[in-house]
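Reviewers of the previous submission asked for a worked example of the structure-prediction workflow described in the proposal, so we include one complete record here. The input consisted solely of the amino acid sequence. No template or homolog information was supplied to the procedure at any stage.
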Amino acid sequence: MFTYRKIDSLQDWDALRDVWNNLAADGVISSPFIRHELLRAWWVGLGGGEWSEAGLSIYTGWQGSELIGAAPFFSQRQVGGKRRLLLIGSFEIMDYLDLIVSPRNHRAFLSGLLDHLAAGEDIAGVWLYNLLDASPTYINGPAIAAEQGWQSEQELLQPAPRIELPGNFEEYLAGIDKKQRHEIRRKMRRLEHSGHMHRWFIVEHAEALEEEISAFLHMMALDENKKAFLTPAMSQQMRSLMKAAFHSGLLHLSFLEIDGIRSAAYLSFRYDNQLFVYNSGVNPQQFEFSPGWVLLGDLLEWANEQGLRYFDFMRGSEDYKYKFGAVSRTVNLVKLTPPARG
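From that input alone, the workflow returned the following structure tokens.
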């Protein structure tokens, strides 16, 4: 049996940072978005204005003095005064979310948590956004909830394509569609032999971080849809996420320059021997060089050379992801409703 405690202050949550991240590293999913730094950055900005009037409601499970699991929730008041609990990061900009618990303790932690919630405050429900299809919270959560008298619903949200890397770029290319393999090589070689000065690089120095973040957000905003997405609150939220990721060693921000002009950029996170490709920007004045594809090819070559296991495109069904050889997983929503009180 575990003892459950509620955390409703940043100070108390921050005190658990290191043990939290150690638990996340041994957790039921591999995701940079369940680390303390990124969840905290999201919480401070409430998803770039996605939510309002939210309350921090993290539930932790303990065995003596050892942290066994954590449910990183925030709460929203519902009609009638009841609260709905959601995972911090829900749901727009944090791709993979889950409970923070090891696989061996998952069932006992979730079962005890639901029992604790049903016996305590009046909860309208628990909505678990962005669960991967391989997560035991998605696979087993409804059955565990039913044992505690809770009802559940499951909803598929989006595909989440990723590439399993063989560790060699040529071997990777050999494993994808022949036409696509030819296109990647052709576009990379065309720029290489064009006579134009070009380079790609990863942002590594703290003193340049602010400037490089601004450059990336500017490139994102060259796309009209992304420009509309980048409200002032969301731009600040993105800055906070990138800074938090940089200072915890997770940020992988890359640019392709052609003749000194920023032509393409990818915002990614390097975590657990994987590259999680999060967002991108392309300069439309450089379309003739196919800079987005070229930089993506460079990143795939680099990732193979580094011995990374996966190149994860995360949420979204864009066609180019599959052309580069990605295979879909899915992210899902699980809604849990507590038993009626007698």
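The domain at 166-308 is CATH 3.40.630.30 (Aminopeptidase). We consider this example representative of the routine output the project will generate in years two and three.
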